[in-house]
Structure formats: structure tokens, C-alpha cells
Automatic annotation (TrEMBL):
Gene3D superfamilies: N-(1-d-carboxylethyl)-l-norvaline Dehydrogenase, domain 2, NAD(P)-binding Rossmann-like Domain. Substrate binds at K112, R260, N261. The keyword Membrane does not apply. This is Glycerol-3-phosphate dehydrogenase [NAD(P)+]. NADPH binds at S17, W18, R38, Y55, K112, A145, R260, V284, E286. It is found in: Cytoplasm. Catalyzes the reduction of the glycolytic intermediate dihydroxyacetone phosphate (DHAP) to sn-glycerol 3-phosphate (G3P), the key precursor for phospholipid synthesis. It catalyses: sn-glycerol 3-phosphate + NADP(+) = dihydroxyacetone phosphate + NADPH + H(+); sn-glycerol 3-phosphate + NAD(+) = dihydroxyacetone phosphate + NADH + H(+).
Length: 338
């Protein structure tokens, strides 16, 4: 965004619930905003009816929000790109945008997760695909798309190795009901956003089994401990875990029924199958893939993360939720902090 002679053009990639909510926010903040989606019907609905009936039904979108199905043109027009496709589509989205990106255009993403199959952080994927000179940032924190789209108060955080870029992205998002903080711990911020999705399945399972509020609080707190330990191992900052990207998003996702990851856990705790539950949710449920990658990362660092391991085993159907929680409760007594 080096163009002093025009207001910056922001292109959001992904017409799912979060991409649409963020694009609407940017447009309402007065920025020239274009959203790209792969589904022609969704693009037409956003352009013509100012609604995304598939992902945010009933929520009016600003008329100033433009939509397109032409990825090359959408990227070529952008001074800032905001990628909001799911983690499984993230590497493909970056490869698709790379040839069309203008040299000054930084890339941010609001995707939560890791590269499937390798466990690489998304900023590592982005650096490899785009090169080390491109400013990169992650937008993360406790933020249900529906509430943001409805204009309800929300706080997020934007992290980048390039502090000025993090601040610029946060500036574009910040508004009267949307507080955007910024920081420079991209690893810790990405880790928190990914891990909370896995831990939300565990609290969902416990709540689905009606194990009570004590169990829920215990799981959230011990889950936080798992984020703290893995975060220390990967070189993230401790304060990131205690902030919006860690504790904030963990609490939201473990307790809020708008969470798809929590809802997956609730369904499993009530005896439904994973396939049934995911189909009923009808949107991306990142934990299904992220659990594999967190376990891979933890094992690489020789860390024992029992709640994460339990969710991983439940999602692979190698243990039932009931047997898994019994196993968790029967673990040896130990100090609270190691
Ligand atoms: N929803 C929320 O409240 C929040 C979500 N996030 C994160 O944002 C990311 C996106 O999630 P969200 O918007 O909620 O997901 P949704 O399930 O609401 O939407 C997913 C969107 O991604 C599109 N998509 C899927 N695969 C591809 C692909 N290969 N290329 C292009 N587009 C693709 C889908 O298109 P199609 O309809 O054609 O399948 C759909 O538009 C996730 O990582 C999530 O964790 C973060 C914070 C809040
Ligand atoms: O990341 C989110 C809120 O911050 C959305 O959580 P779910 O993907 O579980 O719905």
C-alpha cells in the first residue's frame, strides 16, 4: 500500500462466513473492497443481493462491497490481499495468487490451522511461495463471523514480523465496534488460533456428555497449559498465549455454541458420528485436520499433550469419547506446572 494517490484497494479471497464478514467490515470502514470467491452463485448473490445466503444468511452486506469470480483480476487490483480460505486450501490459494500480485502488495490471512500433511505454519508456507520480501501478517483472535457481520463488538489481533505491516493491516480493520490490536509474534499467534480449535472439541465432548461446568473449566485451563507448553517449544512468546490469539480465542471457542469445532465435540459427546456431525455443520471444521498437525508438532518436540492427543484419537475413531475422557481422568497425579 505505497500508493499515496489513491485509497488502498483490499481484496479478500474466500466467500465463506469469515471472508464475507471481514470484507463487509472493510467496506463499512470505507475501504475499496473486493471479495473473490470460486462459487459463481455466491459471487452473484453478494454483488446483486448484498447477501451471502449460503454462509451468512439474513445478514445485509454493504452495497459498496464488490464481488468477483476472476481471481487474476482481483489480485492484480489489490494493494492488500486478505486470504480467508480454509487451511486445506491455503497453499493452493497462495500459488494461485502469486503470479498476479503487484510487487508492493502485502499478504495477510485470517485462516487458522497448519499446512495439511506437513504441519508447517501458514507463514512458513507463505514465505516459501511468495518470497521473503513480501510483508505477511495473520489476523486472529476471538471472532465469530456472524457477530462481526452483525456489527457486535469484537477484538482481534494482527501479528507480523514486520510491525509496521501488522499495524497497517490492523488500521484497515479497526473501527467503532471492531478493535484490532497488533504484535510481532506471528508463530505464537498462529499456534494459538490453530490449537484452540482442537481443544474446543474436547470441551464440546465433555459438555455433550453433560459432565458439568467444572469439567469444562478444567479442560479449558489444562488446554491452555498445552498451548503454553507447545508455544514455548516453538519459540512463541508467553504473552501471546495469554492474549486474544490464545486465551481469548480458547475461551470463545470452548464455550460459544456458534463454534463449529465445539459443535463437533458436542455431537460426538452425544453419540453422533464424525461424518454426520461435520455434514450437519456444513462449514469448515478445522480441528479435523489441525489435530493431526498439532500432534505431529508436539511429538516432534517430544511433548505430551494429553487433551490434544485424546481429540486426535477420537477424531480418528481409535477411541470413543467416553473411553477417552475416562483415560484422561485416570492419568497419574502430577504437578500443575512442569
Ligand atoms: N467463521 C468464523 O467465525 C471464523 C473463521 N476463521 C477461519 O477462517 C477460515 C475460513 O473459514 P470460514 O470462512 O469460516 O469457512 P466457511 O466454511 O464458512 O467457508 C469456506 C469458504 O472457503 C471456500 N473454499 C474452500 N476451498 C476452497 C478452495 N480450494 N479455493 C477457494 N475457496 C475455497 C468455500 O467455497 P465453497 O462454498 O465453494 O466450498 C467457502 O467459500 C478457517 O481457517 C477458519 O478457521 C477464523 C475466525 C473466525
Ligand atoms: O475461529 C473462530 C472464532 O474465533 C471460529 O471458530 P469455529 O471455527 O470453531 O467456528
Amino acid at each position: 500500500m505505497n500508493a499515496a494517490d489513491h485509497t488502498p484497494q483490499v481484496t479478500v479471497l474466500g466467500t465463506g462466513s469469515w471472508g464475507t464478514a471481514l470484507a463487509a467490515l472493510l467496506a463499512r470502514n470505507g475501504h475499496r473492497t473486493l471479495i473473490w470467491g470460486r462459487d459463481a452463485d455466491q459471487v452473484a448473490a453478494i454483488s446483486e443481493r448484498h447477501e451471502n445466503p449460503r454462509y451468512l444468511p439474513g445478514v445485509p452486506l454493504p452495497e459498496s462491497l464488490a464481488a468477483t469470480g476472476d481471481l487474476a483480476a482481483a489480485v492484480a487490483a489489490a494493494d492488500l490481499l486478505l486470504v480467508v480460505t480454509p487451511s486445506h486450501a491455503f497453499p493452493g490459494t497462495l500459488h494461485a495468487l502469486a503470479p498476479h500480485r503487484r510487487p508492493h502488495c502485502g499478504v495477510a490471512w485470517a485462516t487458522k490451522g497448519f499446512e495439511p500433511g506437513s504441519g508447517r505454519f501458514l507463514h512458513e508456507v507463505a514465505t516459501e511461495v511468495l518470497g521473503p520480501e513480501v510483508p505477511l501478517a495473520v489476523v486472529t483472535g476471538p471472532s465469530f463471523a456472524k457477530e462481526v457481520a452483525q456489527g457486535l463488538p469484537t477484538a482481534v489481533t494482527v501479528h507480523s514480523d514486520d510491525e509496521a505491516f501488522a499495524e497497517r493491516v490492523a488500521d484497515l480493520l479497526h473501527g467503532s465496534t471492531f478493535r484490532a490490536y497488533h504484535g510481532t509474534d506471528i508463530r505464537g499467534a498462529e499456534l494459538g488460533g490453530a490449537m484452540k480449535n482442537v481443544l474446543a472439541v474436547a470441551t464440546g465432548v465433555a459438555d455433550g456428555m453433560e459432565l458439568g461446568l467444572n469439567a469444562r473449566a478444567g479442560l479449558i485451563t489444562r488446554g491452555l497449559n498445552e498451548i503454553m507448553r507447545l508455544n514455548a517449544a516453538i519459540g512463541g512468546r508467553a504473552e501471546t498465549v495469554m492474549g486474544l490469539a490464545g486465551l481469548g480465542d480458547l475461551v470463545l471457542t470452548c464455550t460459544g455454541d456458534l463454534s463449529r469445532n465445539r459443535r463437533l465435540g458436542l455431537a460426538l459427546g452425544r453419540g453422533q458420528s464424525i461424518a454426520e456431525a461435520v455434514a450437519a455443520i456444513g462449514q469448515v471444521v478445522e480441528s479435523v485436520q489441525t489435530a493431526d498437525e498439532v500432534v505431529r508438532l508436539a511429538r516432534r518436540h517430544e511433548l505430551d499433550l494429553p487433551i490434544t492427543e485424546l481429540v486426535h484419537a477420537v477424531l480418528h475413531e481409535t477411541i470413543t469419547p467416553v473411553a477417552g475422557l475416562r483415560l484422561l481422568l485416570s492419568r497419574d497425579q502430577k504437578p500443575e506446572y512442569e
